[in-house]
């Protein structure tokens, strides 16, 4: 199997260049890759006026950078994200990602933080299988999970997400495109385009041949567009950011809704792949740190509101034991207090 690689630079910053992988929906031989290269590169560049292009080449899968994946059940693979909030060292590649390989096709769970990360996930998949990538399932809108989506559309996948995912991305796309490049570096995002889902889904089964995925949208919790994916054969639930470990949870939805989701009984679930932290973890123990943090957040903010404290005072809350336990506590906790305060002051 061969892949087209195109050398490209930022038009506004000509020293910032990278080789981009242009995936084909069906596997190509070396000859097919060469004979279609000029036309495919030209078509791709039409969608990227921010880039200038250099030479292209065709390379076999084995020569491409591949994202590390570990197999946690037959045909079920997980990539563990790096530590911390997005920065230039981790290039935003902090989220856990999943791949399901059935006998009739492949599904990807979350796309990674950039075109570059999605490419290395694609190469890692192609090193294992040449079956069609039928679906990219986005667990929610946040950039570390969604920014690689466009690559999987080019690779032939249908992009699925919760019914409110498209509106969530559309409302924030412009501000992310301003705030995100300085955090992770312009080079990390070279060629990255925001992609909207092809279709929203609230409750759906996806059969991949020996692997059944159950997609289920969630009431407002971490965000208003969370969606979980259950791998029936192994009892594994991909929670997206409804569960965090190590990195402090970030509240972009509803603390009440989030705790209600955590309290639902799920006898069918044996283990989870959380959005951040080690994966897999047992259920429900693997969600205990998230639950404990959110319960304390809600209790503290309710008490502040009851005591008549303004938000500007409430956000000074700091628990030393939690600060020692979580990454990014001092950055994310004040924001969580402010989000919870805005929600709970109307109770
Ligand atoms: Zn998130």
UniProtKB/TrEMBL annotation:
Pfam families referenced in this protein's UniProt entry, alphabetically: Lactamase_B
Keyword terms of this UniProt record: Hydrolase
Ranges where the Metallo-beta-lactamase domain occurs: 94-276
Gene Ontology biological process terms, A to Z: antibiotic catabolic process
Molecular function per GO: hydrolase activity
CDD domains listed in its UniProt record: metallo-hydrolase-like_MBL-fold
Superkingdom of origin organism: Bacteria
PANTHER family referenced in this protein's UniProt entry, alphabetically: ACYL-COENZYME A THIOESTERASE MBLAC2, METALLO-BETA-LACTAMASE DOMAIN-CONTAINING
UniProt similarity note: Belongs to the metallo-beta-lactamase superfamily. Class-B beta-lactamase family.
Record NCBIfam families: SoxH_rel_PQQ_2
Protein name: Quinoprotein relay system zinc metallohydrolase 2
Species whose genome carries this gene: Cereibacter azotoformans
């Amino acid at each position: 199997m061969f892949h087209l690689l195109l050398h490209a630079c930022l038009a506004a910053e000509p020293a910032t260049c990278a080789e981009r992988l242009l995936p084909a929906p069906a596997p190509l031989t070396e000859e097919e890759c060469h004979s279609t290269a000029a036309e495919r590169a030209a078509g791709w560049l039409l969608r990227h006026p921010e880039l200038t292009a250099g030479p292209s080449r065709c390379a076999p899968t084995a020569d491409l950078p591949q994202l590390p994946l570990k197999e946690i059940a037959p045909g079920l693979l997980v990539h563990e994200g790096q530590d911390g909030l997005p920065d230039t060292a981790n290039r935003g590649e902090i989220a856990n990602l999943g791949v399901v390989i059935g006998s009739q096709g492949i599904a990807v769970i979350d796309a990674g933080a950039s075109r570059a990360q999605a490419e290395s996930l694609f190469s890692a998949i192609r090193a294992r299988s040449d079956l069609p990538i039928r679906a990219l399932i986005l667990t929610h809108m946040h950039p570390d999970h969604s920014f690689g989506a466009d690559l999987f559309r080019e690779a032939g996948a249908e992009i699925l997400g919760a019914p409110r995912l498209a509106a969530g991305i559309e409302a924030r796309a412009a501000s992310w495109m301003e705030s995100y490049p300085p955090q992770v570096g312009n080079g990390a995002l070279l060629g990255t385009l925001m992609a909207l889902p092809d279709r929203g889904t609230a409750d759906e089964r996806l059969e991949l041949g020996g692997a059944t995925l159950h997609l289920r949208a969630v009431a407002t919790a971490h965000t208003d567009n969370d969606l979980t994916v259950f791998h029936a054969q192994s009892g594994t639930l991909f929670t997206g950011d409804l569960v965090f470990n190590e990195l402090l949870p970030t509240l972009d939805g509803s603390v009440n809704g989030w705790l209600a989701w955590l309290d639902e009984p799920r006898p069918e679930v044996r283990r989870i792949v959380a959005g951040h932290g080690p994966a897999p973890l047992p259920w429900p123990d693997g969600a205990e740190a998230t639950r404990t943090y959110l319960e304390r957040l809600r209790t503290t903010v309710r008490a502040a509101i009851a005591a008549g404290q303004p938000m500007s005072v409430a956000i000074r809350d700091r628990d030393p034991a939690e600060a020692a336990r979580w990454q990014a506590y001092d950055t994310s906790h004040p924001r969580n207090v402010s989000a919870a305060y805005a929600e709970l002051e109307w109770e």
